[in-house]
Design goal:
about 200 residues, about 70% helix, 9 helices, mainly alpha
Length: about 200
Amino acid sequence: MPVFEPGFSGSPLSLRARIKRGHAVRLLGVLAVLALLSGCATLSEGDCATGDWREIGRNDGLHGLQRSQLAKHQEACAKYGVRPDARAYDAGRNSGLRAYCTPDKGFLEGREGRTYRGVCTPPTERAFLDAYRDGKVIYAAREALKDVDRDIIRTEKLIKDDDTSAEERSRLRRELRKLRQDRTRLQRDLDRDEQHYRRYYR
């Protein structure tokens, strides 16, 4: 099943409109790296030899991993002559997915910038994705603040640089004032939206 990466459109909140396109591009890059890293985990020899396959499946379900994760476990354990118990794994994973596919978990996954892999079934997926998109609003706002903070630090250093001309220093001071205004606005919107979402999610 393909990975589903929701966009930022459709939110009634004003914050999304204030996230610059450059921030969104950097965000997608971060999410792509996270997706690659999440697929590299395998089981150790000890996990294969003594593993509780129901618990392994439950843990994968709790982390929203696809069933193809079992094939990765099987490949890892084949080196040690161990064959996974697919029935126990599936039972455990289904149990984990029931805990994963909830609005509270969807909001948390979005807020932390994690990738949703399309593992929830239709009865639960819509509410999960609505909450996931809400969480992405908070994640994007935090990333935007980080970007502004980096720009502020860079601009302050350039202002202090002895090689910066007087004309350029004057321009940089104007830019710095605007950056600080932008940061104040972003922080205010983030605080407001976090307060808003606390009414709906734990």
